[in-house]
């Protein structure tokens, strides 16, 4: 084919459009001649985005004036020249969409000069000054269909290069990009507010500055992590709340670290100023309980009126671990959405406020973002706000805090739009706030607002930032506060008087002393919240009926193992299901997996929802659970526990992503907002919880003491020494025991399927809402001795201590008592049987904390002739339960002869376990012999 004739193109625009569409999708789909033409049309720069408009390149040829002004026919060279120019214009438009944010005026301090970008200059695309007044088609640029090049560039610079820098071209969804382009380009990214809206913004800026000024003069040198430099956060949050309420939101959960928290509490949440000032003065609250926490970690709840009615606000309590609050908030939001039946995620909104260095630096940010659109964790999109101080902690410059251009680049992994905005332009801040929330409401996705500002007083008010950042803080010391800047703007616009800005500040300071609340009017009479009263003041030893009738057991086992007709199972799974059917009718004893499934079935049948999450938890890491069944040929899944009856409670099982910190934080947040659901997180191996230690330390073990927040979260941590090396033997039992105090958590090591059944049911049925840590088994899942009879489920309950189970052991003839927990019991039992020992009793502590002192004392009293008492464990001496139990057991045994307890177990070790199977077995035999006194020269009493 010859080179395309421009005149032919005029009358075959549709044909050329189709060819060009094919070329953009795959250049090999068009002939070499057309391919060469399109390549030349693009000036040898391949357009890889199909959404870039191409029809106008052809369709507007007919209107090309130079070729028609003389009255002659179309000049081929002129047409080709125009085609090149038109393509260049469209590429320039696209370049501004991709990179215009780099030229945006988003830094109020102007610390670094904005360097020009070559590919945002007309010359880069072969456009000259002579083209400035030429009329071009604007393609998909919203506004005029045709405009001069000069007008087009002005539109692009107003939209993308002023106080807002928008990043969205990394998004692959064309609808989302088109929506954002329309909202940005259609308005030139310029807000249009009436006078009352502008005055409201000034009022919020006044409040933001007013509280900081007051605290700075009244509480000199005290830490408050002020918002000064980022005051535009307050009108931003006000806009978010009001606009969310207008769009039907009923609840908002906020998570944030220190910076600006006190300001948010007073000016957004409606906390009484006098309560905050009392905290500054060190006064203890009435009805004080627990340790309490510093004022800038405190949370708060209130309800504020919006155009759509009252909206419940909850500011989450947060420790000093900054971004760790992110998954906790998401979990709390998900629980609230479930409670409301909010399947569309339109009624409860999560807002997360970050620091710039923390957003870029802390891995939990990425983990939480990665949860956003996964099953069981999605909340319909989060509004992320970065208070970008342009400095990390005390001294870190941006180049020390990250390897990326922006602190927000990590958010691109989930294709979220990112709006960088100058914190000194409060109108632009409010504009992107509404835009961001609207995007979230329409597309149910996360969105990020990066408010670039500064920090007036350093990391805290006792810090001297000029010592390490002299240039930045010279600029800050001379920089006018945003309230004054905006007041001056409104004075120029004739909206307020010359002195009105200062008068507003003075009035706010007076209100702090005289008014109960200085934010919008708030209500503390919550309309839709959890009633925690039934869970307060409960005790760990309250009895709960956890047994079920034989008839119900058999019925549940039948229904829990009923498979749809034609649903073919994997052979190994089919054997497990068949065995469970036999267990349900008493033909086989219950193993661990069957007992656990029965516990869940009984709970949901009785109206207790269950939420189970973790890596591989549907199957179980050790293939014991199988609550999710898969069709052998199609891969279709079926959950019997979701199909027991029409009136059953919900059973949700989620194979979580490969995260511990974010997922456990999420489950904590969920459980702390929903006391009625049994929330369980299972670690793939117990030591995987190491990756979530901050959640355990800062929330699970201490949230009640610090913040009076209850939580019934259950953690399943596979634990047991099976000769598999140091990495996956130990769930680090000692760490949890070290955290035990004031009955804050429960640490249990069930050794039988029935004990685990009753333990799980006890956690859901009784109103005692404390975290439960279960050292769950690995090899015991299929151990021949670790089984339970049907009667153990239909009678009895969880026993914190299990006495000697062998009836042939006469208590009066026992000379030695062995105390232990978990798998080592079966090692001891088999060794005792092998050596036909009858004067040693083995007592199992199934609950290590709260310490069952009374139960232990009662059992010890049954053995009046026992002269020695030994704690036996498989963990090394410096690990496991030994040091914790030694202190408690010595108190337990002090009234008995030879009261101190002895130790039998592995020697101290820096590693949790040995890596060689031979050494593992050798150590096992040595400490079993020590425990059973097989090496003693003393002659054993024959029985």
UniProtKB/TrEMBL annotation:
SUPFAM superfamilies: Thiamin diphosphate-binding fold (THDP-binding). InterPro entries: 2-oxogl_dehyd_N, 2oxoglutarate_DH_E1, DH_E1, KGD_C_sf, ODO-1/KGD_C, THDP-binding, Transketolase-like_Pyr-bd. GO terms for molecular function: oxoglutarate dehydrogenase (succinyl-transferring) activity; thiamine pyrophosphate binding. It catalyses: N(6)-[(R)-lipoyl]-L-lysyl-[protein] + 2-oxoglutarate + H(+) = N(6)-[(R)-S(8)-succinyldihydrolipoyl]-L-lysyl-[protein] + CO2. Its cofactor is thiamine diphosphate. Belongs to the alpha-ketoglutarate dehydrogenase family. Homodimer. Part of the 2-oxoglutarate dehydrogenase (OGDH) complex composed of E1 (2-oxoglutarate dehydrogenase), E2 (dihydrolipoamide succinyltransferase) and E3 (dihydrolipoamide dehydrogenase); the complex contains multiple copies of the three enzymatic components (E1, E2 and E3). This is 2-oxoglutarate dehydrogenase E1 component.
